[in-house]
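Q: My labmate handed me this sequence with no annotations at all. I'd like to see what the chain might look like in three dimensions before we decide whether it's worth expressing. Could you predict it?
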Amino acid sequence: MEWTTVAAHGVATAALSLTWKAAITAAVVIGVALLAERANAVLAAVLMGLPISIGPALALLATTHGEPFVIESARYALASVFGVLAFLVTYVHAARFTGLWGCLIAGYSAWLSATLAVGHLSLSIPGALGIAVAGLLLTRLTMPRQAPPALSSDPHPLRFIIVRGVLAGLAVATVVTAGRALGPALAGLFASFPVIFGTVAWMLATLGNNDLATATLSHADRGMASFISFCFCFAVLAPVVSVWPALGISLLISVLVSVGLVMRLKHTSANGSPKT
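A: Here is what I predict for the chain of 276 residues:
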């Protein structure tokens, strides 16, 4: 009986740990999604590139596994943008041959392949930044841009926002809880699992069609500069000023980058179609 009591206590503790981590991340994601609903379409697109999953993930990794663990994870979180971009490019290309679920399977398969490949590398901060920048350049060359969709001004049903937040929360909480078994490299890489882009595609395909989802994702990489700036600043600053000040400064910088992206996109839209 004693071993069953111990096992039950372990399961309950793990479930509680998973639940509070998921709840924190879900609250952040839902909050940003609700903000996007009240903003214009340009701002909403840029917000998808904000570190709304990786930010809570790094904070929870630090809380759960300590600063040395998350400092090492940060380098791989920076390189993880390569896998996220692989998801986007593969989804858009796959849309020529299949529907939503085929695109999601192809996209997540590409993300997993790219992520595992990067995970085998021993990365410095410049090396991780090089991989992220290479991913952006390859996306520029290989992404088949589509005309930006004319999004409805009506707010999306709340259920999609809640589901998006819950799935993101579960993904981050699972990575954080399994962080010690995964190790710092895979924990940093898997924390960037592109659940936000996948649920956005599912939402748009459900409300409209997969053409709408594909057109949106074909421009989603435009906001990734914010993600990269956050991860790069955190990887550089965390060993110097400790994790929590580094998180705050990195978040501020990523927001400033997003503001710059919004201003640039508005200027571009006012003068014609967006540049590729």
